[in-house]
Design brief:
With 283 residues, this protein is α/β, with parallel strands linked by helices. The chain has a domain of 198 residues: NAD(P)-binding Rossmann-like Domain (Rossmann fold). 36% of the residues lie in helices and 14% in strands. The protein is built from eleven helices and twelve strands. A four-stranded parallel beta sheet has the order 3-4-6-10. A two-stranded parallel ribbon has the order 1-2. The two termini are 30 Å apart. The mean pLDDT is 97. The structure holds NADP nicotinamide-adenine-dinucleotide phosphate.
Length: 283
Amino acid sequence: MIGGGYCGHRFATRLQELGTRVITTRRNPEAGSNALAFNSDDGTIPSAEALAGTTHVLVTAPPDREGQDPCLKALESQLRRLELQWVGYLSTTGVYGDRKGLWVNEDDEAPLESLLRRSAARRRCEEAWLSSGWPVQIFRLPGIYGPGRNPMGSLRRGESRLVHKQGQVFCRIHVDDIVGAITHCLALLAERRPALLNVVDAWPAPSSDVISYAAHLLGCSLPEFQPFEAIAGELSPMALSFWRDNRRVSNQRLTQGLGYGLKYPSFREGLRACLNEEQAQLG
Ligand SMILES: NC(=O)c1ccc[n+]([C@@H]2O[C@H](COP(=O)([O-])OP(=O)(O)OC[C@H]3O[C@@H](n4cnc5c(N)ncnc54)[C@H](OP(=O)(O)O)[C@@H]3O)[C@@H](O)[C@H]2O)c1
């Protein structure tokens, strides 16, 4: 597992439960952790001995500041020494650009020049992996949520904003459906694994709907309603860029083509599960 962050850690934990041997990397592994040190920015790479015997690699690191893929940039020669049977790459649905709220699927390619800079970098990283010669699967992900990373956290901290932009929706996915979809693919015959796969839930929705439902679950009051147009001027360029693209991303290839059943088809089931898990952890 290249990167043991939010998705990487959840996926590694699941694979270990299934009895698979997993290696993860972190840029600065904590003392006592089993993770290997890998940081493309300072050239720290794991030894060939530490990686020996690896057959499957999931890349969870995003493009670096120059837009390059950290793994291909710094670890490719190490990986070439292995007999890899599968490479999974976690990408984003940002590569579809703005679709004015319409549906998109894996066959709908956006012109590179129409994309946000970070999405264009992502597409180039996808292309680099697809042309690597390894059997690569690209998983295109929308906003990732799950236990410890969801709108209930910001509501509890009083940091939530109820911003609404007419007609704007966002797609999202619970982290356990990322894990589930990848595990599902790995159980398929290699020739049935698609090179490009959207892993998104079935319910694109305005962020105000999601925050409202999160507040309902917590039984707390909603922050003040703010029309996007009224606050756009005070948003950072980064925050503004998240509101630029409006699309509904189809999961038909995953659910109908490959027969994967989403654990959390919408944010409602997903947020309820997050709350249950967070409460169980608190004891
Ligand atoms: N967050 C979202 O809503 C979202 C949506 C769509 C797609 N994605 C993409 O999906 C992927 C997984 O997301 P995530 O939320 O699990 O990400 P994450 O928690 O930030 O994990 C990314 C991992 O990559 C490692 N990493 C980053 N830069 C690196 C570098 N230069 N060299 C070596 N390792 C590096 C990080 O190391 P450390 O552990 O040391 O930090 C971390 O383990 C990412 O590519 C992300 O951009 C995210």
